[in-house]
What we know:
496 residues; alpha+beta; Gyrase A, domain 2; 3 domains; four-stranded antiparallel sheet
Amino acid sequence: MKVLLAGFNVDLEALKAYKNQNITLTPESLSAAYARISRSPKAVDALRSEAREEVEKARKSNRTIIFEMGHHSIAEHAIFNFDIIGISRRAVEELEKFRLCSYTEKSQRYVTLRGDFVIPEELKKTDILSDYLNIIRAQNNFYKILFDKIKKYASKRYPHLTKSKKGQRTLENISKEDARYILSLATQTQLGATINARNLELMMRRFASHRLSELNKLGKKFFTLVKKIAPSIILFYESNDYDEKTYPALRQHTQSLLRKINDVQDTKDVTLIDYTPNADNKILASLMFKVSQKAYPQCLKTVKHMSKKDKIAFFKKACRYLELYDVVLREFEFGNITYALTVSAACFGQLKRHRIATLTWQDYDPNLGITIPESIKEIGEDQTFMHIVDKTERIYNKIEKRYPGLGTYILTNAHRKRVLVSVNLRELYHLSRLREDATAQWDIRDKAHKMSTAAKQVMPITAQLLGSKSEYPKLYFRLFGQHPKITEVPPPESIC
Length: 496
């Protein structure tokens, strides 16, 4: 694994003076200046000037405000950019748990993989290592076979795509998209990450407390890169009992409780398990509250007495000028929905990016079965696929007995886990626009469509426009009897 500090934010005036003076470039001066805004009558540019000229004083101020006064938010003004190279897909799932950061990751849908994978430090000097290496090599070799065969199959099925470079790229992407289901979570990836200091400190602490050495290593690399640049705003970075022991203690206690309860088998991959009662009324009432000077109870009472026709008319007022690139109004956040999902690792890799939703998930569980792309069945390679999966699961069980938590490295993108998702209707609109689209990957497109369908059953008025970007003009026409102004994304050359 290689981690590089690609950049960090600095005061522009300090940057201008850097070449000619002995200036310390650090984001801490910005944090210190902004922290003083609430208590100083001076203009903020004057506060910045003082902070960059007296860096040690600024650092002392930061420590006092964060540690003694508890105002951690000032650390959010310091921002770092990292290149993270050679990290496993398994570790990325832990990294991208942190929702107030930005990540752009190499996609297995668009990049042909070369077989690079991570070997956990915990396994390097054990007798299980050979099993680990052999199964991952078998998976990677089969990936190449699948890629070639799916490409030939797709070329015959979509012959028009073979006639242009763009079409040929599409054929390759189709092949990569489905072939990757046999790849392990040990597969290496890379990403760019933008993280503010407050979240970076939390990452370091969580990674220091994590049971995987790969994450311990990542946290230490972060610390090494930033400790000299911003020592006053990275304070609580060491492991602690809360992060290290809470979930294990809950797990142990839960096992004793669940012994008394019969197993309930999952029958659906998407289940609506909870939602805001009368959500349509509450969302419409919140819209009414926003634009009136009336108390919310009065708005809600008014909506309750409206006919369905009048409610739809009011909803239409809120969406009349909504284009496919717009987000619905903030008041749609007053309707919440909770789903229980069972998803493949390939699907979860995309679902986890929706960080405004509340996501909590279990470890991957071979007992939940696997997801096999239809194309692999069509080319007659599903039996070989299952043979490799069966061998993978035998080695997984062998590793888990001796080194709990490490077996997931060799599980494939086809393996599944259970996920609990709580999302407000506004965020569901975003998820639906992106993940139900024709350009979206088929696995998550299926889950997003089922989520939207379930939402429309319990929020039949305010969820009417749920759907993909490509479907949006039809949805809009169905509601308004005319098309929106913009019916497709404009080409790059038309953008000013």
